[in-house]
Amino acid sequence: MTENKTDSSTDHTLDQATSNKVQLIYAGGTFGSYGKPLSALPATTFLPLLMDKVRQNLTSNIEVLENSCVKDSSQLSPSDFSHFFQLILNRYAQGYRHFVLITGTDTLSYLGSFLAEAFAGSDVSLALTASMRPLFDANDIHNYNIDPHSDAWGNLSDAIGLAAHGESGVFVTFAGESWPAQTVQKIHSHDLMAFTGHTRAGYPANSYLKSLPAARRRNWIEDTQDKLEVITSQAKTAIIPTIYCVPNSGEWLSSQLTALLELPPTGIILMGFGAGNIPFSEQLAQTLDKLYQHGHIVVCTTQCPYGGVSEAYAAGSWQYEHHVLSAGRLTVPAVYARLLWLHLAFDTPARRRQRWSYSVGKQ
């Protein structure tokens, strides 16, 4: 997966018409499924059909960016996330900045949040989308006709329009709306209005620059490319454990967390009740201290889809005295993505905690 670093001078070799072409990445999902029972069409079959309809009905200012990772999004791993990051980064280094990524809905919010973290500080314009129903009508098995009842074509049209417009940032477009990627979460398992998000986004959404000077752009690219080998290597074994609190004792929660001391330092998501409340016990408090000493970063978030966590309740605030970090208003996908990126891009627990604090300060 690791490729040679692209010469940073290449961003001057492309004419404006070429560099403004939207780069379309197809990564699989319901969007490209077909037939009865539904199954994913091979990319070699699906993409020519899709591009023919896009060029006829939407725009000719688009081209496919070849991608070897096409799978159901429920099967994506940290290594796959780093693959998409490298794929887009290499093209960005060549002077392109407009991208659309079609994936599945299961991990759309996770992948979008990760790419938002990874491209912070750049001027990339990336729109991710997916669909709850396949693009082609599965009842017409002899022809590849767009299903008028599917959400796929509308979602793709919006994503291409957003990327072509060129607003800097990483976004998710779905059901006629678009949001900064790290605010998005899936809230329905089969409804067409499956996602929600908001526009009151802090870091990394507020890190993107509308116009990035050429020298600064080259520096960002070169600095990021220098990290690629480590990022792709770390991604092969990266794990972000998640503990979902239910009404068990603090001792039971402590035993679950103690098992994680066998892992190398990483991020741990603790999904508490309400505003971040979790069961208390002296044993659990001691375990949280041990996790910190080991180099783990424990972040407390909430099982509630809205509102985030706070330190207003004693039932939750005690944990922050034992080195737990607050997720604030971040969604679970955004917490996962930030912890994963910190694990891949920063080499010590101290630097990861420092970067987390920096990110929170930019909210």
Describe the structure.
The protein has 363 residues and is of the alpha/beta class. 37% of the residues lie in helices and 15% in strands. The chain is built from eleven helices and 14 strands. Strands 4-1-5-6-7-8 form a six-stranded mixed beta sheet, with helices on both faces. Strands 11-12-13-14 form a four-stranded parallel beta sheet, with helices on both faces. Helix 4 packs across helix 10 and helix 7 packs parallel to helix 8. The longest helix is centred in the middle third of the chain and has 22 residues, at 214-235. The chain is globular and about 65 Å long.
Oligomer: single chain
Main beta sheet: strand number and arrangement? Answer: 6 strands, mixed
pLDDT under 50 segments (min length 5)? 1-12
User: What is the helix fraction of residues, given as a range?
Assistant: 25-40%
Query: How many E-type strands?
Result: 14
Order of helices and strands: HEEEHEHEHEHEEEEHEHEHEHEHH
How many whole angstroms does the radius of gyration measure?
21 Å
Structural class: alpha/beta
Helices, by number, come to 11
C-alpha geometry: globular
Q: What spatial order of strands do you see in the largest sheet?
A: 4-1-5-6-7-8
In percent terms, what proportion of residues is strand?
A: 5-15%
Give the termini separation: 34 Å
Task: Give the structure's gist in a few sentences.
This protein is an alpha/beta fold and 363 residues long.
Task: Name the descriptors.
363 residues; alpha/beta; 6-stranded mixed β-sheet; disordered N terminus
